[in-house]
């Protein structure tokens, strides 16, 4: 189906989990936490971000899982990382363009 609006997600950062042992291969410091910004889009142009999501992957055994399958230690680290990572400004593209158009129309009507 051809979807012109909805939501998408984009990776905005990847961080190594600190002193974390992979539950599958039991290797330490092989897990990377990737943070994604979820955002609404219209015609694939970002409107605004509304949530962050974390995924973890192990570089040793390639086990991957999303944040509802994290254990308590990884959940804690992922939440701290998600707090630090900001949504990139370009994910507000259409909102910024809309504000610029409104400002331009307002200025033009004042100058008349
Ligand atoms: Zn592993």
Automatic annotation (TrEMBL):
InterPro entries: Zinc_ribbon_15 (IPR031493). It comes from the Bacteria. Keywords: Membrane, Transmembrane, Transmembrane helix. Pfam families: Zn_ribbon_15. This is Zinc-ribbon 15 domain-containing protein. It comes from Flavisolibacter tropicus. Residues 21-69 form the Zinc-ribbon domain. The keyword Membrane applies. The chain crosses the membrane at residues 89-111.
